[in-house]
Amino acid sequence: MKRALITGITGQDGSYLAELLLDKGYEVHGLVRRASTFTTARINHLYEDPRESLTRLTLHYGDITDGARLTELLVKVAPDEVYHLAAQSHVRVSFDQAAHTGEVSGIATTRLLDAIRVIGLPCRFYQASTSEMFGGTPPPQHEGSPLRPRSPYAVAKTYAYWMTRNYREGYGMFAVNGILFNHESPRRGETFVTRKISRAAARISLGDRVPLYLGNLDAVRDWGYAPEYVEAMWRMLQAPEPDDFVIATGSALSVREFLGHAFGHVGLDWRDHVRHDARHDRPTEVDSLIGDPGKAARVLGWRATVGGAELARLMVDADLAAARTAPAPRTSAEASTRAVSW
Ligand code: NDP
Ligand code: GDR
Fold first, then answer.
1. Rounded to two decimals, what is the model's pTM?
2. Where is the NAD(P)-binding domain (predicted)?
3. Are residues 108 and 140 in the same domain?
4. Range of the structural domain that residue 277 is part of
5. ipTM value of the model?
6. How many domains would you assign to the chain?
7. Annotated active-site positions, please?
8. Residue nearest to atom 8 of ligand 2 (CA)
9. What are the tens digits of pLDDT across the range 1-55?
10. CA of 83: how far to CAs of 3, 53, 105, 212, 230, in Å?
């Protein structure tokens, strides 16, 4: 039985990856940071499975910035594969927490790589790199495109990308970068734009009158479906040689077009319900990210099948179902759209 350690297991991708690996028969270990409230909503269902997954999924407390704890866990778990997904992953928030984002989304990767190197653990390592690293480079972006990061988040991830490559080249580690373009799902964090939109379309279609406050609607993103993207992560670690891959659909929508698909799906015109709030604008914006997934198709046999329009519809349907069973109080909907700058 293969053993995997997932950092960021409570996040969108970590939860889908844990499912995928358990389905494949892995023993899965996840790093979870302590919080004053429960953070395991996305993986609780894995514990409700009465069969053997209960004994094959283990969570360990730890913070990704705590090198000693990472070393201890790597020795204890001795994973065959490490999927490093933990990060401060919000681009807008990274402008408010630049140094913190550098620690969590950048330097923590070095702590993990170094712990693996010092222990001499013969594991395979996946780094969650991002299309944000391309920043100001015009589309289509591929593995050889220049990295021109335009946010503290993207700068931190670019550092981690290069450290991963350096440890591969310098120490012969099987360490790879998955350069993933935006990927979404009903489990997407509520402050990312697609989920803000799908939740708003659902609640407004059910009668809520509170508008949706957004920033820049002109940004263009290559949006794919998260469960398909975690399959690509796994394939990268099964490849004969370590290498870096762009994972994307190859086509894109603007935020405005995504709004059209989401609100149109429930018979609404988004223009009646969306307001601009400058707090959601970014000091430096990334205008257009559209990936070229050709290498992943050739080498890994991986292709995206769900595009932005279908994604908008499936996310709205999921939020409609959720809102019907547990309608959010109006006040909390308003507070969560107005309180901070996402
Ligand atoms: P999420 O924001 O949903 O999840 C982030 C995870 O990191 C959560 O489990 C979070 O824990 C954990 N985390 C944050 N800080 C710490 C810390 N200090 N110590 C331990 N754990 C921590 O991100 P996604 O699932 O969407 O993305 C996964 C990874 O892929 C991230 O690294 C992201 O930057 C990267 N990425 C994502 C893309 C996307 O479109 N989704 C595209 C390209 C890259 P908690 O639940 O407690 O907050
Ligand atoms: P992104 O995703 O920055 O691409 O990073 P996000 O959904 O936050 O923004 C996408 C685009 O929408 C614009 N936008 C808004 N964004 C948010 N969050 N809130 C708003 O109100 C809003 N209005 C407009 C943004 O300006 C941006 O252009 C995501 C994260 O998952 C990263 O971790 C990951 O690396 C990249 O995708 C690829």
1. 0.97
2. 5-315
3. yes
4. 193-220+253-289+310-341
5. 0.99
6. 2
7. 158
8. 192
9. 999 999 999 999 999 999 999 999 999 999 999 999 999 999 999 977 655 556 7
10. 11, 19, 14, 35, 10
